[in-house]
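Section 5.1 Outputs to date
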Amino acid sequence: MANIPQFFREVRVEMSKVVWPTSRQLVIYTLVVIVLSVLLAVFLGALDLGFQTILTKYIL
C-alpha cells in the first residue's frame, strides 16, 4: 500500500516530461489521420469491387 502514493508521484514526474502537441499540430495530425483513413477505405473498396467483378464475371 505504501507504493501507491510513490507510483502516483512518479507518474506525475513522468507526465511533466511529455512534450504535448500544440493545438495546430493536433488539428493537422487529426486531419492527416482522417484523410489517410478515407483514402485507404476508398482503395480497399475499389479492390473489393474489382475482385467481386472478376469473380462474378469469370469464375461464377
